[in-house]
Amino acid sequence: MLRVVEINEIEALATIRANWRKLWLETPHASFFQTLDWLRIYWRHFGRDQRLRVLIVLDADRIVGIVPLTVVREQTRLGPVRVLTYPLSEWGSYYGPLGVDRNQTLGAACRHIRETPRDWELFDLRWLATADIEDDLSFSAMSMGGLTAHRGVWNETSLIDVPESWEKYLATRSPKFRSEIRRKTRRVRRQGRMEMLRYRPQGLEAADGDPRWDLFGQAYHIALTSWQGASVYGNTLSHPEVSGFFRETHKAAAELGMLDLCLIYVDGRPSAFLYNYHRDGEVYGLRRGSLPEIHELGIGTVATAVTIEDSCRRRDRLIDLGAGSIHAKRSWLTRLAPIGRVTHYPTFEPKSQILRWSHWWKNGRPSRRADQTRAQQTVDLL
Fold first, then answer.
1. Which DSSP letter does residue 267 get?
2. Which of 37, 56, 61, 206: disulfide with 202, CB 3.0–4.6 Å?
3. CATH homologous superfamily of domain 163-316?
4. Cα–Cα dist 115/2, whole Å
């Protein structure tokens, strides 16, 4: 029988660092966002008004799974609602439990949530990957834990399935777009010699964890001098509300061997950047930017093109361009992937029940055809 121990203080997680690392390595497609290093930094910067609930799942005395959760107060049309969810907060596309048997881990966690005093009004497992949707992992786990589960759609993300060569990728693009890439590349090259530097340290375990603050500073300067420097939204690389967070996660990603920083130089001057994380051939595009005086020449398009070409050479398998801004990503993506959610609405919580009907109305009633996968059905709702 699995049992669950709950940890509510971020400092206490240091005692299970080795177990966390082991389970992270055993979890398929686990990302930088699911590392303890990222969670500790995130919590230091944004956890003040949240309540941490990390559920440690044990088989006898052996840790077999970890489910990081947080209670966060969110504003809705009905007023503030306390939501129990994963601590990702839109920084990435996907999240989930750590462990080999994630269904058993999450099922035990959901049972613990049902049996302990409720400090939330909505239990919403968001940022679910396609495999989770296909296998009904979170839905069955929530049901196994004795909670009524409802499938839904959280968002969608733009993906590039990276082929063996740049030529094969280009062959999938429209003639018009291929011509646009060539035209913009010529424009940029007229400004001077164009070079790309892609920095992927192997991590401290390989004695290669230098964060290269000089390169980070170049990306930061580009962001600061572009439109991002004047942005009122606190999520750009140079915004004072998050710049400290970015610096700390930059160091952690470098030391873990998951940093992927691309810089484009024109005539020796840093002119554009793509800031990513990566693991096992999967790249997540976090931020990007370019100098305003060369932006109009199309260096953003050129930077994306040379980065994809380099990923083909490196044998990367997938590039996640992230959610939102589909109009800017449509020419590059090879497919749109759903980001799922599974939600429990407590019966005697009025706000929760109103939100249930609101979510139902927004997503529509599922009508899965026999020839559709669960993920295809979910995409149809977007």
1. T
2. 206
3. Gcn5-related N-acetyltransferase (GNAT) (3.40.630.30)
4. 14
